[in-house]
## 1
Amino acid sequence: MKNKWIFAFSTLLLFQGCAHQPQEKVVQDKKIERVQTHLIEEDLNSCGDCILGSVGDKVLKQSEKKVYFLFGAEHLKLSNYYFDIPVVYNKATEKWIKYFITRGRKHFQRYAERAGKYAPVLSKILNDQGLPRDLIYLSMAESGFSNHARSWAKAVGPWQFMPYTGRKYGLEVDFFIDERRDPLKATVAASMYLRDLYERFDSWELAMAGYNAGEGKIGRAIRRYKTKNFWDIRKGRYLRAETKNYVPKIMALAIIGKNLSVFGFDNVEFEKALDFEEIVVKGNTDLYKVADVLGVTFEEMKKYNPEILRWQVAPHLTEYNLRVPVGKKVAWDTNPNREFVIATDYTPYQLRGYANLHHVGRKFKVPVDVLSELNGIGPKKRLYPKSVVLLPFRKDHIARKNHLYADLYERPRKSILRRRAYKKWVNRGKRLGEHIKDPKKFYIVKKGDTLWDIARKTGVNINTIIRSNYKLVRRRMILPGDKLAIK
């Protein structure tokens, strides 16, 4: 039905301190306003040829916001040419369009389907925060609207926040909770960050580039090239290829996303729109027990609350607004067992010798403050053999094999391990090596050479080679053709 109401319940945070503050955390007002957002079907898809959450030409032409016309793409015979972020049709965007309609077609199809669940609410939050709705395509580029997306650099969630930036914009990130995974709270934080970037650079292209590379990198690029034109900066070598491709990738997603049938995406089966109710529970509530009371599965509870990392609500919280399937709030309010859902099934660990919580935390990869709060024991208190320490793992979980704790035990990529080992060698060489002040003999690096190989070939201590060539080796690993002082 045309006038069918689709309900999306969203938790919008009220923030203070929205001005750009490079070195300060943006303070989150602890007051939380819960609103029920009613979205009419026409609002969810005011554009007949767009992914849900987008608005088409008809709405944008009547908008009071600044809008942009896509020039140079008339030959594509698009359904929609207007955007509320600048979109350019050039070789860079054309390359990404070709990718998403050929090799990357299955990726775009999956992203578009997932957009049905999240994009309408994300779009509304962006609009309520005074930002362009088409910035949902930045989230699409970052994560494909996935709450569980995680990059090798440990950026997390639908907006791929790094831990520092997430905390700066009011998101809680600790052992028990990671609000970067919450699509609603993360969108509010992303809105604030993007607003700060735009106010700093006065350009949506540079704001998007800054979201990828960091505002410092883009600021230095502007000073280096003496321009605020992203496309001119992109011609230089200063920005990484990832950042150079990032902005045209977003634009390509926006062009396809607002012209689905033109690019052959006629039959996108959008996921059901985000829809839930909330119940208030105490800190340290066991989600397994809540699931039993509600008659749902633990997996379903996790699906509605992706920001909760473990099997329980964080113990340090007084109370928490837990999301549940529509219709389950009544079941919760009328069930007397809701009073017996506090987490108690912790794993006991018996010490074999003398130790303290620092030793236990190191063994099980658990922060010492978590163990201290859970056991009511000071982190430095000496514990005797056979003392029992509770671990924040459920009794029926094998910690190193259960996905709830995978982040604690994952091994870094080999490339990261190599960089860490290299950095240790360089720091050691700087500290222990002898500095050759006026070198007379040099070694030209050959293909396959390592610092250790060069030390063995030349008979010069590796620490001396590092110390005497520190300006080079501190920046990167050696490459063929590098000239190293050895004597």
Note: Residues 1-24, 27-44 have pLDDT under 50 and may be disordered.
## 2
Amino acid sequence: MSTPRIGVLIAQLGTPDAPTPQALRPYLRQFLSDMRVIDYAPWKWQPILRGIILNTRPKRSAKLYQRIWLPEGSPLLVYSRQQVEGVQARLGAGYRVLVGMRYGNPSIPAAFAQFAAEGIDRILVVPMFPQFSCTTTASIYDEVYLAAAGRRCPLFHERKRFVPTLRFVEPYYDHPDYINAMRDHLTQQIEQLPHVPDKFMITFHGIPQRYVEEGDPYRAQSERTAHLLAEALGWSEDQWVLTFQSRFGPEKWLEPYTDATLEGLAAQGVQRPLVFAPGFVTDCLETLDELGHEGRDQFAAGGGRPDNYVIAPCLNAFPGWLDALAGLIQTNSHGW
């Protein structure tokens, strides 16, 4: 009798099906209705979301997605599938690796339905967020529990009587293999440049400051990652800066802000910045457009030469990262 396969869920945040307002509207409705992301009372937030945001933001967001969309589709999905393919090849036939999106498609419930159809009843969940936040990792946990119980799986009825065994890869923000993969990846990127950067910006997606004050460990874990990466690359304290991006809404978010920092670099004498986002292991809108396009404009607005601005790609399908990811999976599925 053969050993049953282990299911591996590569859990990503999400992407729209197309770079159009029609596709962005349901995607944003699902994303911005998640109370892990925006925790305002529904009676207060939903009228704003449905009456204002969903009538204006889809068109604006669609234009941004159109600037980064690949011939094969959404960059996040394209690169996620490359990660799945690379990890599957490293793990072999004893594992079944699928990608599942918290928002959009292919969804986490669809992945669980596929596992069930293949008779896989032990599933390891890999949140693709090295640093824990209630806005990302915890939201993945919520959706996984619902999907595993069958409450959001189209192949199951409410009377589902079996729930698969679950394990989760814990946040790996300080794991040596993750740090070393980034070190090797960035070293390779820097060696290909015509000039040596004179400032390294390590940027993470921001969250409201209030969330940290209420116990979210995200800032502390992001700072730990940044310092370990800088140490691994041999950067002195004055060679790099830590910032937080993607502010949204009226609340105070984690500082210093990436956009304001970029605008001030030239005034500090920085001519050749390199920007990297360790919290994103897969390129997406926030890296390719917000950092790639808008970030370049912000650097130029402060007096910098846009041609000297460099954004390093995410780990994506970098072989060292796929090796690290496969190692994390093997370690966390030990005993199965």
Note: The two ends are 15 Å apart (CA to CA).
## 3
Amino acid sequence: MRALWGAMTPRGKALLAILVVALLLAPLAVNRYLLSVLTLILYFVYVGQAWNLMMGYAGQLSLGHALYVGLGGYVSAALWVHFGIGPWLGVFPAVAVGAAFGAAIGWLGFRFGIEGVYFALLTIAFAEFTRIGFDHISFTGGAGGLFIPYEEKRLGEWWNLRGGQPFFYYVAFLMAAAGVVIAALLSRARIGFQWLAVREDEIAARALGINTFRAKMKAVLVSSGMTAVGGVFYAFYNNSLFPAQVFDIGRSIELILAPIVGGLGTIFGPVIGAFILTPLGEILITAIDRIGINAPGVKAVFYGLLLMIIISVVPNGVWPWIVQRFALVKRQP
């Protein structure tokens, strides 16, 4: 992290400091609606960082990443509803279950040479199988959903993730900050360089003595475990979980768009992407509601068009263009 800070120019450091201070003070200056939008932005920053570690750094495409959000959410919510185990303890089994599913997918894919688009299809298949399974599990509410009781007497119990909008905003802020720090540390660590080698040329990486199977498995485990933590937040923030919603491929696409738009394999790409896409999506939904048009798929179409425009203009993502345009990072000698 110190190396990342040292690589930034004074302008970059100043802009980052301003952003952090502005986010810390946001609850004092914006209304509840804008605060909820900012909370969503920070949530997508975090889960985008988790996916970016697997795809942006290790080069393993997962299009079913909502699987881990759903698993983390359902495990923590079920432990709370049925056994009274709070989310701060429930997050550990949630991460374990998410990582176990990630390990199963990774082992099947990497051990049998399922790569590229076929590996992506494998991740989608696991998410869909899990959705069908949860539709028929009465313990978690089945297709009717699992609901976390909202009790006013529990407001303020931070240890149970019970609080108002400002409370969840700061939790999302801490998660987003942690995601950035984790990505920065891993990208500069030995495993980060191994991931980059695997992403660029797996055969060459293997020739250099890198255990590519182990490196890719570590990427899947870290990414799935981190995403499961996001699922815990998702469950207690929304107080309800539905299999058709949380495991849906549309949720996975929504999750991965921020790092793609911001810049794959960059630390601040998911941050920029989330700050671009989430507000635009909310503006679109608000505009459609005011007009009174019933168009359930318009958000996906909008995201698709926006993605095509951004890729055509800045193929490497918005963040690399910003860095080059405004000199936020020192030039390498």
Note: The first helix runs from residue 2 to 7.
## 4
Amino acid sequence: MIRLPLRLAHVRDLGLKELRSLLRERFLLVLILIAFTVSVVAGTRASPETLRHTPIAIVDEDRSPLSMRIAGAFLPPYFQAPQLVDAAGMERRLELGQDTFGLDIPPQFQRDVLAGRQPVVQLNVDATRIGQAFSGSTYVQAIVQREVRRFLGGEQDPPAAAVQLVSRARFNPGLSKVWFGSIMQVINQVTMLSLVLSGAALVRERDRGTLEHLLAMPVTPLEIMLAKAWSMGLVVLLAAAGSLVVVVQGVLQVPLAGSLPLFLLGTGVHLFATTSMGILIATLARSMPQFGLLLLMVLLPLQMLSGSITPRESMPAWVQLLMLLAPNTHYVMLGQGILYRGAGLATLWPEFLILLSIGSLFFLIALARFRRSVGSLG
């Protein structure tokens, strides 16, 4: 049997203690399970940026061939089958949130169109569904105008343009938000849980008074910190790998273009940085509620400005420069390069190096703070 050096054995045994302690924390175990399963699936299908199975109700007060033609033009996958209701029913359905759009076709609509009177069609929109409301209004207007134009002149398509633009979508041919959102959800959950688990492990020791017991043993603050970092990082790494294989590839049927082992290697480097950040936040907090408040102040800007939700290029230049100091900005670049574009280490080695440098800096700062905090206990 190979014997590890004493200090490495301390790090190993303390890490195993953290894993056993985590197994007794049912709330954290449930949080991990939900974060990498339900949250990944729900996050990819909620609040879509483009129309998909959008509910619409139609009040057809004309009952003419033209109005029925318009009602039949709302087709999947952009819209659900239209619900034909009266005006009161449309209002009720909008108030209950059952529809995003309510289209009211007035009486004598076809007769007025044929007479050239330009009748008005009323479109009611549930603006609380802001993504669908913004783009969907344009879709509805285009569909109504197209059907009226075809009814009047039989025109099937607009005249051919002098120049034809051919678009080819790379890395996501179907422009599916699920392909993008699922992987970004996993990346965001990795950042969140690594901060939560590592920081909570330290705060929990202090609240229970077991940190003083550890300091009475022949272990150093460095060994304690390394043990918490590797044990909590390992839990998040295994959960992320399982989520990518079971949920992303299995349930959501999202193909991964690049190497999963290379992505997990980058995740390990990222976890080195974020677990250090979690411990650093825990050294600033005096209790678990305070740790939670500090975590919110750090986590929300990290996730919103890292490029996982909106492109970094759309942000102010100073925000882009500032966020280069955040580890998850480079982790998002790394994850997108590997899992979307199939990039390898030869392309992404700068991100690995920068992520390792940021992680080392956070680790040294967290270690200095941790030594100072345990010194005050002695």
Note: Residues 56-153 form a domain with the abc type-2 transporter like fold fold (CATH 3.40.1710.10).
